[in-house]
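Worked example 3 (structure in, sequence out).
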């Protein structure tokens, strides 16, 4: 496009600069036209402001949709646990207690055995209920804050875990949903380390930052973590994404594996 202008530039600017001692004029015009020509492909390919705004609007919608799907799946799991676990044991408890009442007058020995079995069923139902409650919001978060809960996870993981909870022992607490997401992120990451990494050591670090909370769990195992197998890592992503957070997984073959979750919140 600029090629036909060069002879004109040589004639006009050559004479103007060489004989009349003027500054080049055509050359500056060519430079501006060249810049404009270079911007045309970018302008054609670059999405419009309206398209960029639409993309930004769709991203939170997709994130929230994924969070809703994850929450629905978790609710179905809770329902399944209640139906197959605690509910079944409570039904058995009620039946045994009813049999014990009917046998009490004519067969006290059998009634006592049925009573003892019913008591065992009741205790097992309570254990099942505690398990379900921990899956929704671990009570240890209420009792020991996030820092204490993560240290308890580290101690019970069966691994040699270095837990660095920073200054989370004191000061303001993150919202309950953020603390639960951080807790389950550490729990899932340590479970994966114990099952798949081939390493007996790991580290968990929680850092309070201006924009929220950062959770980092790493190990020096053989790496190669695959998100397509199992539901642990995708479930972790859905739980964090529901809070507009992010999860980054780095796991090259040979290790190390690092999971970093960013959870936005105000302090």
């Amino acid at each position: 496009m600029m090629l036909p202008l060069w002879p004109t530039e040589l004639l006009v600017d050559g004479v103007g600069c060489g004989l009349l001692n003027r500054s080049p004029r055509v050359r500056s015009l060519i430079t501006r036209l060249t810049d404009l020509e270079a911007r045309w492909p970018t302008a054609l390919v670059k999405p419009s402001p309206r398209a960029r705004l639409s993309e930004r609007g769709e991203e939170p919608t997709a994130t929230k949709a994924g969070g809703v799907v994850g929450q629905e799946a978790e609710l179905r799991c809770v329902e399944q646990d209640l139906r197959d676990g605690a509910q079944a044991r409570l039904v058995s408890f009620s039946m045994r207690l009813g049999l014990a009442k009917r046998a009490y007058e004519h067969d006290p020995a059998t009634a006592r055995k049925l009573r003892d079995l019913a008591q065992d069923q009741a205790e097992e139902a309570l254990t099942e209920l505690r398990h379900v409650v921990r899956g929704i919001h671990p009570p240890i978060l209420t009792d020991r804050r996030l820092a204490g809960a993560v240290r308890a996870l580290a101690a019970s993981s069966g691994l040699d875990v270095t837990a660095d909870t920073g200054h989370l022992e004191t000061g303001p607490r993150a919202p309950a949903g953020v603390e639960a997401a951080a807790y389950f992120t550490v729990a899932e990451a340590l479970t994966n380390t114990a099952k798949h990494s081939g390493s007996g050591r790991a580290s968990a670090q929680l850092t309070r930052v201006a924009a929220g909370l950062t959770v980092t769990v790493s190990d020096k195992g053989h790496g190669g973590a695959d998100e397509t197998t199992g539901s642990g890592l995708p479930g972790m992503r859905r739980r964090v994404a529901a809070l507009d957070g992010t999860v980054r997984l780095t796991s090259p073959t040979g290790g190390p594996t690092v999971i970093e979750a960013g959870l936005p919140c105000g302090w």
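Notes: Confidence is low (pLDDT under 50) at residues 9-16, 61-70. The beta strands are 160-164, 201-209, 212-219, 246-250, 257-264.
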